[in-house]
Amino acid sequence: METVNIHEAKTHLSRLIERAAKGESFIIAKAGKPMVKLVPLDQPAAAQMRRLGFMNGQFVVPADFDQMGIGEIEQLFGAG
Questions:
Q1: Which residues pair with 38 in a beta bridge?
Q2: Distance (Å, rounded) from C-alpha 67 to C-alpha 72?
Q3: Model confidence, pTM
Q4: Given phi > 0 = left and psi -120 to 50 = alpha, else beta, which region is 13?
Q5: What sections of the chain are H helices per DSSP?
Q6: CA-CA distance, 72 to 35, in Å (whole number)?
Q7: Stronger pLDDT, 78 or 14, i.e. the higher one
Q8: Does residue 45 lie within any of the structural domains?
């Protein structure tokens, strides 16, 4: 694992982040003493990712869903 001094890390932070995102790990040291470890984040597995439309076809929304309960709502808010 590569050790990078803190001055170099500040100067080349974007490059180090790009390399870490590709799987490399780094230790950032100050005056030769290791301080922190820069590692890539784990990406969620495909099974853990949320998908849009995953319930497609499993239920039906009525055409008048926005009018359901309108009488009760009008009573609650004093309309009409």
A1: 26
A2: 11
A3: 0.50
A4: alpha
A5: 6-11, 13-21, 70-76
A6: 63
A7: 14
A8: no
